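Query structure, 508 tokens:
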């Protein structure tokens, strides 16, 4: 907040000197101004309170001054202290000279130091509040401008996938199902739906994160394995841009506590940015390392880099470099805000570095490192081979969901068993002892929660180690909490994104 001064307006140097000395003694900043005309030339922020000595109220200055008062912005009501010697006629003087302004304190001459100091103090205090209001109004109009820009960009970003989808729908109506163009069109549609779903997910994520509503499902894991799995998920985009992804993992395990799904989101966001802001043919290096008490993840690219003046704000919501952003790459400018919030929720930090335009960018995330014993590791056999085939039990009463999930799991090379009800699921689980069980919550016989609780209550290594994933139609925090309390490791909301499920299974 600026410190503004009391301005003594008087043609008399002696009056000015006396008044200023009273103010200085009280520690109040003040300066002299010979006329109202000169006062009008000062910036509003420099004038905290104007002390007008009656001799200054002369034509035409007084007219200019009154116009200036009338033209004040809505936040401003300049405090005035009038020094006059008219005795009983003071009120009439104020009425005559300042018919519009209610913010005048009148002091009788000769000048009394105590009343002058106290009147000026009151004025300066009121003025500080006005400056605060001005700042709030400026912040509000900045936020409104940002909102409008964001809405314009959001409609642009949503229109982008909508246009090809509308064309695709038109084509699909007219093409035979075995026409190769039909398949091409269907794939295009799938890509655009995925893109749109990501935009909406990001928007929801950012608001949930801002409201502190995101809860992590932490467990011990090796950052190396998570980095490798996430890099693989991003590989298609990198290949499509003819770029090379170099993966550098640490020799020793980098155990951290993290939510595997959110960790993948962090890594993929950074790698996607690296690919997006690096020209075709460039290189992206993704590195996991141990550094003292920390485990770190670095994503470095050989791309367009980030201007020094933007480095400080890349993590702010809706920040995008208008000069470099190819609109064809799009985006809302929220990816890094989500990444930063998620990293902080994990107790980590993120920093960015770039040597400038076309010199690439580097993002480094650090997490507190755990030792192997503190990390609640899964049985060694499955961790040693991330992404290996697993035995999966699907407990789901809806035949279409059950069958399509089974097809997906088979496609990824996993062995699949099925159960259609809660009791059936328990029996199958106990008989085949799967690595993973995907369990619907609304099941006949026993709910998914009860199935999980029963499994966890069995006293053996398998029952403690089997990964239980809940599949539900509800994504509220209370549902997640209930799933966790029942012994589930993860909670996926239907319709489950196949990529998310695949990545989750790879991390198991
Ligand atoms: N690796 C990078 N190289 C150069 N600039 C980057 C890089 N990563 C981020 N930026 C800059 O930071 C801005 C913000 O990144 P962020 O991920 O938040 O948004 P976005 O990628 O534009 O959109 P979104 O992630 O919401 O789809 C980008 O628009 C870009 O200007
Ligand atoms: Mg991004």
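Result returned for the query:
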């Amino acid at each position: 907040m600026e410190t503004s001064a009391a301005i003594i307006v008087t043609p008399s140097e002696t009056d000015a000197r006396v008044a200023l000395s009273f103010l200085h003694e009280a520690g109040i900043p003040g300066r002299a101004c010979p006329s109202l005309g000169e006062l009008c030339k000062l910036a509003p922020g420099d004038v905290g309170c104007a002390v007008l000595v009656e001799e200054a109220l002369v034509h035409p200055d007084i007219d200019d001054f009154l116009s200036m008062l009338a033209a004040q912005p809505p936040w401003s009501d300049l405090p005035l202290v009038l020094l006059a010697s008219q005795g009983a006629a003071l009120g009439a003087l104020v009425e005559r000279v300042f018919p519009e302004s209610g913010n005048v304190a009148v002091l009788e001459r000769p000048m009394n130091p105590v009343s002058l100091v106290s009147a000026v103090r009151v004025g300066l205090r009121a003025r500080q509040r006005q400056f605060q209001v001005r700042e709030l109004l400026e912040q509000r109009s900045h936020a409104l401008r940002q909102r409008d820009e964001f809405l314009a960009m959001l409609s642009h970003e949503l229109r982008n996938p909508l246009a090809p989808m509308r064309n695709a729908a038109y084509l699909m109506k007219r093409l035979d199902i075995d026409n190769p163009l039909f398949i091409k069109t269907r794939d295009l549609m799938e890509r655009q739906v995925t893109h749109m779903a990501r935009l909406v997910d990001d928007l929801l994520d950012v608001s949930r994160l801002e409201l502190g509503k995101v809860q992590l499902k932490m467990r011990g894991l090796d950052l190396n394995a998570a980095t490798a799995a996430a890099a693989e998920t991003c590989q298609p985009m990198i290949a499509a841009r003819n770029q090379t992804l170099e993966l550098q993992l640490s020799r020793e395990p980098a155990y951290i506590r993290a939510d595997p799904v959110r960790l993948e989101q962090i890594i993929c966001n950074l790698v996607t940015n690296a690919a997006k802001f690096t020209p075709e043919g460039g290189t992206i290096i993704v590195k996991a390392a141990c550094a003292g008490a920390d485990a770190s993840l670095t994503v470095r690219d050989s791309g367009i880099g980030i201007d020094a003046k933007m480095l400080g704000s890349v993590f702010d919501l809706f920040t995008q470099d208008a000069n470099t952003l190819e609109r064809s790459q799009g985006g809302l400018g929220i990816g890094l805000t989500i990444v930063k919030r998620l990293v902080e929720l994990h107790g980590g930090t993120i920093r960015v570095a770039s040597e400038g335009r076309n010199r690439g960018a580097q993002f480094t995330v650090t997490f507190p490192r755990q030792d192997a014993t503190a990390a609640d590791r899964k049985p060694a056999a499955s961790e040693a081979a991330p992404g290996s085939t697993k035995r999966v039990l699907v407990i789901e009463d809806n035949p279409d969901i059950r069958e399509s999930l089974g097809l997906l799991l088979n496609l990824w090379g996993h062995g699949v068993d099925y159960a259609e009800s809660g009791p059936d699921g328990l029996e199958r689980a106990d008989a085949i002892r799967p690595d993973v069980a995907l369990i619907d919550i609304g099941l006949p016989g026993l709910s998914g929660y009860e199935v999980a609780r029963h499994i966890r209550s069995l006293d053996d290594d398998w029952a403690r180690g089997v990964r239980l994933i809940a599949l539900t139609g509800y994504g509220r925090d209370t549902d997640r909490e209930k799933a966790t309390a029942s012994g589930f490791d993860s909670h996926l909301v239907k319709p489950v994104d196949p990529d998310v499920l695949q990545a989750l299974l790879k991390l198991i």
